[in-house]
Every structure is written in C-alpha cells, then in structure tokens.
Design brief:
With 273 residues, chain A is mainly alpha-helical. Chain A contains 11 helices and no strands. In chain A, helix 1 crosses helix 11, helix 4 packs across helix 6 and helix 8 runs antiparallel to helix 11. With 377 residues, chain B is α+β, with helices and mostly antiparallel strands. In chain B, 26% of the residues lie in helices and 33% in strands. Classes of the chains: A mainly alpha (273), B alpha+beta (377). The complex binds adenosine-5'-triphosphate and magnesium ion.
Chain lengths: 273, 377
C-alpha cells in the first residue's frame, strides 16, 4: 500500500518531467538549428556528412549587416519604441478608466475595442497607403509605428485594465486619505504595483511590432524595418544567409525579453495578475 | 479636533440602500463606536465621513464646515481600513512613515513617530519587512500604526482589532483607548464585537439595515434598549423575549404569557394602560432571572415562576441554565459555578425592575420611548 503510492508519486513526477522536456525541445529546436547554421561555415553547411557544423564564422552575419541590416535593425527598434510610447500613452489612461470607473456604455466600448482586433490587416492595407501618401507619412518610420500602434492598442487597453483592476482600490484610497490627490496616488501607489504587468505588456508590444512584416513591407520602400528588409533582400540569398537573417531577427528580441524578464516574475515578492 | 455631524445621510448602490437616513452628532474628542451586524452600513458610513464616497442625500459637517463634497485629503482624517490597505511595495517603516512624508515632516520627527507607533503596537522588529512577510494580525497593526502617526482631526477605524488573538486584542483595546484619551482626537470606531463596543466607546451608535437604532452610553444601550433589535443584539446570552397579553387590573398589571403570568406593580400603569387587552413583547436578560437562593438582596420586585432544566452550560465563571417553562425556553445566567440536574424542577424569579416591554408592531420599547422623546426634543 505504502510502497505503491510512493511508486505512483515518482512515476507521476517522471511523466511530468518527460512532458516538460518534450515541450522545451519543441520550442528550442528551431532556435538551436537557426543559430547553429547562422554561424556555420559555408563548407560545413553544404557537406552532406556533417549535421552539427564544426567550423564557425561571422561571415554571413557580416554580409547581411553590410547589405543594410544594421539600418533595418535600428529602424525596427525605433518603430517598436515609438509604438510602445504611443500605445501606452493612449492605452494606459483608457485601461485605468475601464478598471476603476463605472460609466454608461462601458461593456459596449470594451467589445468594440476587442472587435478591432478582428479586422484583417490586409483589408485596410491599401486604403492605409493612400491615406499615408496624402498625409505624407508613406515610407516613414512614424507611419509604420502608427499602424503598429493601431494593432497594439486594443491589447494594451484590455491588458492594462485588467492589471489596474488587480490593484485593490483601497490602496489608492488610503493614499488619498493620507494626503495625495488621485494623480499622486496613481503614480506613487498604483503605478509601481502595476509595473511588472505593464512590463509584460511592453514586451509583448515590442515583439509584435518587431515581428510585423506585412504592414511594414507595404508602407515602406527605403526605410525598411528588419522583417521587411529580410523579406525583400535575404530571401533570394543562399540558405545560410537566411539562417543568419533568422538569427538577427531572434537575437534582439531575446535580449529584450531577458532584460525585462526579471520584472515579469516577481517584484517585491508579490505577483499581480 | 473637531465635532462631526451627519445630517440625513443616504447612500445607495444600485438597488441596495447601504445607508438609509443617518443623523448623528459626534462631539469634539469623543470616542464613538458604530456597532451593528455584518452588512448594516458601518463601513459605508465611515467611507462617507472620510470622503471616499459621496452620499446620495444629506450632509457631512466638520464643525460648521460642510465637507460633503471635499476630497479626503482636505478633511484631515486618518483611517484604518477593514482590509488594512497597507502598500505591498513599501516596507513596514515606509508604510507608517508615508503620511508624515506627504505632510513634509522633518526626517528626525518622522523617525521618532514611526518608532513610537511601532513600539505601541509591538511591531518594532517588523519595520524592515515587506507586508507580504507579515501575518494578518501584524498587517492590521501596521495599518493602525499608520493611522495614528499623524495627528488627524478625525480618526476613523474600521474593525482595527478584528484579526488579533484574544489576549493582544484586550491589550490593544486599552492602548488605543488610552492613546485616544491623551491626544483627544475625535474617533469613530466600527466594530461588530459588542464587548469591544461596550469597553471602548464613550457612546455607542447601534446600527441595523442602514439605520441608527439607538445612540447612547454603553450602560444606556445595555439597560435601556430602545427597541427589540438593540435589546437582542447587545448582551450575551441574548435577552429572553416572549409574547404576553396585557391585563390592567385595579392595583396591578398582569402580563399573561401562555406558560405563566407576571404581575407588574402599578409603576408600569402610565405606559401600559393603553395596551389593555393587547399583545406586547416582553424582554428580560438572563442575568435578571434568579434561581431560588440566588436573588440579590437588593432585588425587591420579583415574580416567581417554575421550569424544568433542559440544558446547562457550565462556563466556569458563569452557569447558563436553559429552563423549559412549558412552551418556551428561558435562558438564565448565574454567576459562579453551580450544579443543576437536567430534568429537575427549578423555581426562578423575574426581576421586575429590569423587565422590558416592546410594542408588538413597531418593536419599540414602551418604557424608554417617553424618555427618548424628552431627550430628542
Ligand atoms: N461598492 C459597493 N457596491 C455595491 N454594494 C455595496 C458596496 N459597498 C457596500 N455595499 C452594500 O451596502 C451594504 C452595507 O455595506 P457595508 O460595507 O457598509 O457593511 P458593514 O456594516 O461594513 O458590514 P461588515 O461588518 O460585514 O463589514 C451591504 O449590503 C453591501 O453589500
Ligand atoms: Mg465593514
């Protein structure tokens, strides 16, 4: 009796560990492959006898950077940052209002905002280009950032409203009792408590903008963001260049996530949803 | 230091009426307790005084200043929240210091006050911790400390001791009460613990269903309850209630309960005359019923009845008898430890000078109605 329950306990643990390993492999294999091949020397890459390359080189990366990837990376970062700034500037107040106030039409508005996400971006691409040409925003980074903001905004509003709703209102009220106004209470109490959640939202927004290829390709010609640049220039190149391009795509996003990750898990030992 | 006046306060949340017309005058430096069952509107009343909630009707006055629509920070109040509301991203020290920092106290003064409050509430060794490293009772004491470091005009406390163990609670009660006496701050203290209310309050306002049922000194509330609710809510074990028909005779009044008759002296004539032939609710506290041999010598007007012992609660300091008188159970409290056989017959005396009579319809006390009319005019 005793023994069989112990066996069961360990069996269960082993099965869970196995499943976890499987899941991790599933996610990590493509990363490992593209990183390995991004640095593999030309001969190793083409040699049919070698699965894991033995000689490594920075040549492919260098070639891509020379072709204009440097500029594209900078463009992408600029677009992502502008997207975060605008979508947070507009989205946080809206999210706060949804979280803390009761007003007429609240549910309808929320539904509309989620509804915006259902629009296929294809449908608005052509009208958007015409509009941008009229406004003089075509082929500009601000233009791309505005389009990305439109895509990210519903997400930022909904997520931030649930983050703010997770901060008990008494915490803000206590600050107001002890001498702060609503604005002060927001910045000194709610904001620090919401920060981990908001960081997560910022990472998500960053990655969304970083990865977005369609709108970026349609709206820009000379000021390509990284995905648009890779799509137009690297896809005609040899395979190892494609892997190098893949690596350049992944790498900055990974660095960003690693830096921001520690804010995600816990802050002051509490986890706010 | 200010007197607080609530004038006709009404607060609705959608269809529920949380506060239903409250008038209350709180004196400068008074310690008033709001006592009532869960959901009767105590917290809502406190939040209205704090300015966290705007009443739908009525006014809040601090002195002669109308503060009904002023934001909390312009009222100079301090509050202990029922949910504590201490800030999770600040250490205990910073939580307590926060109100002082906002009010721009010098650093040494802040330090002095925080240490003093921590000492008083026995949380000195916790100052360097974050709230999530504290137990519920410790968090509650941080909330109290934060509320008392500033010198507010009005101190609002919403069940500030509810999460402490019995021993600490008794100690904190007296500490808070002493502190309040010393700094003479007008204090509004919410609790549903009647012992806390009786021991701490200069006056108690008993609330039920969004209304104040009675306001008075603890002894008034206890000895002269204004209605059935107050009589039943305050005191343990609960007051005995039974229906009886009034018969006015030439020189006495008979209360005819189905199991027994109580002969009241003529003193009750003025209040009971108009109830001749009608049914009233009679109330008597368990400690005002004396078994044979336990009647105090001071008790003059007694009415003897007989019952069978149904159940005995031996509490050590007290003995509680449940007496079956035929169709109802009378609860009798005797101080000290005594032995009674279950099923045995016991003669008990009702102390007629501590009997309560209530109108059957309105549930209002017939004895203390007149008195209150005099008071309120
Ligand atoms: N924000 C709110 N929205 C809707 N109803 C509310 C709100 N706040 C309070 N109520 C309702 O108002 C009534 C009074 O609530 P209140 O919190 O004042 O009770 P209380 O006397 O403090 O009770 P307790 O002793 O349980 O704390 C309750 O019926 C409650 O459900
Ligand atoms: Mg309450």
């Amino acid at each position: 009796m005793e023994e069989s329950s112990i066996v069961k306990y360990y069996l269960r643990k082993i099965i869970i560990a196995g499943l976890v390993i499987l899941a991790v492999l599933w996610v990590i294999t493509p990363f490992v492959i593209s990183i390995l091949y991004a640095f593999a020397s030309k001969t190793d890459y083409y040699s049919p006898n070698i699965l894991i390359p033995l000689h490594y080189t920075l040549e492919h990366i260098q070639k891509l950077l020379d072709l204009g990837a440097t500029r594209a990376i900078i463009n992408s970062v600029i677009v992502a940052v502008i997207t975060i700034i605008i979508s947070f500037a507009l989205g946080l107040p809206a999210g706060y209002a949804f979280a803390k106030f009761v007003f007429r039409g609240k549910d309808t508005l929320k539904l509309l905002i989620i509804g915006l996400r259902m629009f296929p971006i294809l449908v608005i691409a052509v009208p958007l280009v015409t509009l941008y040409i009229k406004l003089g925003l075509n082929d500009s980074l601000l233009g791309v950032a505005l389009a990305h903001t439109a895509m990210a905004l519903p997400f930022v509003i909904i997520i931030s409203s649930s983050i703010f709703a997770g901060v008990p209102k008494e915490l803000e009220e206590a600050a107001m009792i002890f001498g702060l106004d609503r604005k002060g209470a927001f910045f000194r109490i709610t904001m620090p408590l919401a920060l981990p959640g908001l960081t997560a939202a910022a990472i998500f927004t960053f990655i969304m903008s970083w990865n977005e290829v369609f709108i970026a390709s349609v709206l820009t010609l000379t000021n390509r963001t990284l995905p648009a640049f890779i799509l137009t220039s690297a896809m005609a190149a040899p395979d190892f260049i494609k892997f190098a391009a893949g690596f350049i795509m992944i790498f900055p996003a990974m660095v960003f996530v690693f830096i921001a990750r520690k804010y995600l898990i816990t802050m002051w030992g509490i986890t706010l949803k | 230091m200010v007197d607080v006046h609530l004038k006709g306060i009404v607060k609705r949340f959608g269809k529920t009426i949380a506060v239903n017309g409250i008038d209350l005058d709180i004196r400068d430096g008074e310690f008033i307790v709001l006592l009532g069952p869960s959901g009767c509107g105590k917290t809502t009343t406190l939040r209205i005084i704090a300015g966290l909630e705007k009443p739908d009707e009525g006014r809040v006055l601090f002195g002669d200043r109308d503060v009904t629509y002023l934001p909390p920070r312009e009222r100079n109040v301090s509050m202990v929240f029922q949910s504590y509301a201490i800030w999770p991203h600040m250490k205990v020290y910073d939580n307590i210091a926060f109100p002082l920092k906002i009010k721009k106290f010098p650093k040494e003064e802040i330090d002095k006050r925080v240490k003093w409050a921590a000492e008083l509430l026995q949380i000195s060794e916790l100052l360097d911790r974050y709230p999530h490293q504290l137990s519920g009772g410790q968090r509650q004491r941080v909330a109290v400390a934060r509320a008392i470091v500033v010198e507010p005009d009005v101190l609002l406390m919403d069940e500030p001791l509810s999460n402490l163990d019995a021993l600490l609670r008794v100690k904190m009660r007296s500490e808070l009460k002493k502190l309040q006496r010393r700094i003479k701050v007008t204090t509004i203290y919410v609790t549903h613990d009647q012992v806390e209310a009786m021991t701490m309050g200069d006056r108690i306002a008993v609330m039920n269903k969004g209304k104040i049922q009675q306001v008075g000194r603890p002894d008034e509330i206890y000895l002269k309850p204004a209605n059935v609710f107050v009589a039943g809510f305050v005191g343990t074990p609960q007051m005995n209630f039974f229906d009886a028909t009034v018969e006015v005779k030439d020189d006495e009044i008979i209360l005819d309960a189905s199991d027994f008759k109580v002969r009241l002296p003529k003193d009750y004539l003025p209040v009971l005359q108009e109830y001749n032939g009608k049914t009233v609710i009679v109330g008597i506290r368990p400690e005002h019923i004396y078994p044979e041999g336990h009647a105090p010598t001071t008790a003059k007007k007694l009415s003897w009845i007989e019952g069978t012992v149904d159940f005995v609660e031996a509490l050590g300091s007290d003995t509680i008898l449940h007496l079956n008188t035929g169709s109802m159970i009378l609860v009798v409290k005797i101080s000290g430890s005594h032995h009674y056989e279950i099923g045995s017959k016991v003669k008990v005396a009702l102390d007629l000078s501590n009997i309560h009579v209530f109108d059957k319809e309105s549930q209002v006390s017939l004895l203390y109605k007149k008195q209150r009319e005099v008071q309120s005019s």
